[in-house]
């Protein structure tokens, strides 16, 4: 079992699963908030902006924002991990960095969904970004035999 956690694709699976957990959390928060705000999904037109809808509780919006964020920067993470796997650059360091990135995204989610304290969220986001930069630089150096 531990050997399976030491492949670069295991953190990919973990972040996919976490994104699906946030999707469930989104439904749990958003549907009751929409009902409470009197929003009828059948009457929403695709071109309507959120500004034209009745307001929902911030926590219902925060979880939706986090779900969207899990489809933004993590795309780079997925690409780096797939590249690392395909070219064989999935050593313990890259795997460890990938797991740190996943942990950082989980922490980022909890911050955004519970308090949404932006200075802390921004700091955590930057740590995650640094993990991606390090993985990318390591892959480039490996590609050139450095």
Describe it:
The chain is mainly alpha-helical and 146 residues long. It has one domain: Four Helix Bundle (Hemerythrin (Met), subunit A) (Up-down Bundle), CATH 1.20.120. It is 74% helix and 0% strand. The chain has 6 helices and no strands. Helix 3 runs antiparallel to helix 5, helix 4 runs parallel beside helix 6 and helix 5 packs antiparallel against helix 6. The protein is elongated, with a radius of gyration of 18 Å. The model has no long low-confidence stretch (mean pLDDT 92).
What are the key terms here?
Four Helix Bundle (Hemerythrin (Met), subunit A); single chain; mainly alpha; 146 residues
Q: Looking at CATH, which topology would you report?
A: Four Helix Bundle (Hemerythrin (Met), subunit A)
Largest sheet data: none
CATH architecture: Up-down Bundle
Number of helices: 6
Helical content (DSSP H or I, runs of 4+): over 70%
CATH top level label: Mainly Alpha
How many individual β-strands? 0
So what's the overall shape?
elongated
Low-confidence stretches: none
Q: How confident is the prediction overall: mean pLDDT?
A: 92
Number of domains: 1
Q: Please provide the ordered H/E string of secondary-structure elements.
A: HHHHHH
Structural class, judged by helices and strands? Answer: mainly alpha
Cα-based radius of gyration, to the nearest Å: 18 Å
Distance between the termini: 32 Å
What percent of residues are in strands?
under 5%
* CATH superfamily membership: Membrane associated eicosanoid/glutathione metabolism-like domain
